[in-house]
């Protein structure tokens, strides 16, 4: 659902939340695997960070 919202509802600034993978430190998309290193991502493997479209 987050992937759909990021694709269709995020403003020009980008998505409101970014997903950083603990194992490699890179920002990944909403997927079951890290888009950077390819390792599986589970809830405990990521940090949620404010994205460029977050309202502060």
Structure report:
The protein is an alpha+beta fold and 56 residues long. Helix content is 12%, strand content 21%. It contains 1 helix and 3 strands; from the N terminus they run H-E-E-E. It is globular and about 30 Å long.
Features:
56 residues; alpha+beta; 12% helix; 3-stranded antiparallel beta sheet; 1 helix; single chain
Helix and strand run:
HEEE
Counting DSSP H or I runs of 4 or more residues, the number of helices is: 1
The major pleated sheet works out as:
3 strands, antiparallel
Strand order of the largest sheet: 2-1-3
Radius of gyration: 11 Å
Distance between the termini: 22 Å
Low-confidence stretches: none
Structural class: alpha+beta
Topology record:
Layout: H1 2-8, E1 17-21, E2 27-28, E3 46-50
Antiparallel strand pairs: 1-2, 1-3
Entry summary:
By secondary structure, this protein is of the alpha+beta class.
């Amino acid at each position: 659902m987050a992937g759909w919202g990021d694709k269709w509802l995020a403003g020009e600034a980008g998505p409101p939340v970014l997903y950083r993978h603990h194992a490699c430190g890179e920002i990944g998309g909403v997927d079951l695997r890290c888009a950077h290193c390819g390792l599986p991502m589970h809830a405990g493997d990521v940090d949620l960070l404010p994205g460029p479209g977050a309202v502060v």
